[in-house]
Structure formats: structure tokens, C-alpha cells
Write a structure and sequence with these properties.
This protein is an alpha/beta fold and about 210 residues long. The protein has a single domain, classed as Vaccinia Virus protein VP39 (Rossmann fold). It contains seven helices and seven strands, in the order αααβαββαβαβαββ. The chain has a seven-stranded mixed sheet, with helices on both faces. β1, α4 and β2 form a beta-alpha-beta unit. α6 packs parallel to α7. It is found in: Cytoplasm.
């Protein structure tokens, strides 16, 4: 077996000793990311009983798990990812590439004529390690998600999206501000300090 690189050893050590990883295993969540949404929701009350929402980039499903629990039987969660996702009670899931019109049309048909209270997006591209390329790919997904939110949110609906600070971030923030009455930044405790990820919360779609 090839020797692990220092960076992969560091990641493994961090993962093994990660409080949120252990907590996720204990609480039955599929990934530590669940606690990011739980913390944001505790502050901002985005998901309540009866909320109808879309989860873009949902696999392995921890955000959908949280959303289904919080929205309850009167709510509805529609999820989409290019990767497979094991079924979750209360979640309608489509596997496909969000960038393809055919997949988007299939997802829209799942929504029917329903307008959404909320769109959440924890999507990230497969990282190549080339910072400029990865940032461009990530922003492209964010813009697609923003377009989806503009088209499918109710007036005064909300949009929560993960972005990476870097080239194009300021321009994307301006697009968010044009679409929503207010835009706030969130950096939950479960988000690793060394990560450039941040969450933008667009409130009250215009």
C-alpha cells in the first residue's frame, strides 16, 4: 500500500477526531453537514412545520434529513443530486446533473405548480485542486441555483447557498442582493475554520 501523504493523514486525523463526525454517527445523520443547517436554522428559523423546500446537491442526504424532520408531515422536501441518495422518509428525490436542462425539467415536473418557501443548496463541484478552476465551477453551480430560486420561490421566499470566497464572489453577492430584500452571511460552527466556504442567506425574494 502506498504511503499516505501528509495532507491525507492530516485530513484522516481531523476526521477521526472531529466532534461533529461523532455526533452525526450518534444522532443518525449521514454527514456532519447536518449541524451546519441545524445551527443556521436555529438562528434564522428558515424551516418550520409545513415548509415546502428544495434541496439542491442533496447527497448523501444530511440536509434533506434535517429538512424533513423540521418541515414535518405538512411540509415537503424535494431533493436533487448527480450522486445517488438512499431514500429518506418525506423526501422526493431525483438523481441527475443539475446543469442539464432535461434533469431540471424533470425536477420541475416533480414540483408541479408548487412555489417554494425555501431553496437550500450545499452543492460543490468535484474539486480538482486547481483553485481558479474550482472557484469558477463552484460559482457556476451557485448561479444555476440562484436562477432556480428566482424562478421557483414564492414572493418573500428564502434562499440559502454555500459559496467559496474568491474570484467572482463579489459579483455573485450583488446578484443575490438584486433578487432578495436582504442578504446575510453565515459561518456555522460546524464549518471548518480553514475552509473558505461561507453561506449566503437571501431573505424575502423580491
Amino acid at each position: 500500500m502506498a504511503a499516505r501523504s501528509k495532507s491525507s493523514k492530516a485530513w484522516l486525523n481531523e476526521h477521526v477526531n472531529d466532534h461533529y463526525v461523532h455526533q452525526a454517527q450518534k444522532d443518525g445523520y449521514r454527514a456532519r453537514a447536518a449541524y451546519k443547517l441545524l445551527e443556521i436554522n436555529e438562528k434564522d428559523r428558515l424551516i418550520q412545520p409545513g415548509t415546502v423546500l428544495a434541496d439542491l446537491g442533496s447527497a448523501p442526504g444530511s440536509w434533506s434529513q434535517v429538512a424533513a424532520e423540521l418541515a414535518g408531515e405538512k411540509g415537503a422536501v424535494f431533493a436533487l443530486d448527480i450522486l445517488p441518495m438512499e431514500p429518506i422518509a418525506g423526501v422526493s428525490f431525483i438523481q441527475g446533473d443539475f446543469r442539464e436542462d432535461e434533469v431540471l425539467a424533470q425536477f420541475e415536473s416533480l414540483l408541479g405548480d408548487r412555489l417554494l418557501d425555501l431553496v437550500i443548496c450545499d452543492m460543490a463541484p468535484n474539486m480538482s485542486g486547481h483553485a481558479v478552476t474550482d472557484q469558477a465551477k463552484s460559482l457556476y453551480l451557485c448561479k444555476l441555483a440562484l436562477d432556480f430560486a428566482r424562478n421557483h420561490l414564492k414572493t418573500n421566499g428564502h434562499f440559502l447557498v454555500k459559496v467559496f470566497q474568491g474570484a467572482g464572489y463579489t459579483e455573485f453577492l450583488a446578484e443575490m442582493r438584486a433578487a432578495f430584500s436582504s442578504v446575510q452571511t453565515r459561518k456555522p460552527g460546524a464549518s471548518r475554520n480553514r475552509s473558505s466556504e461561507i453561506y449566503l442567506l437571501g431573505r424575502n425574494k423580491r
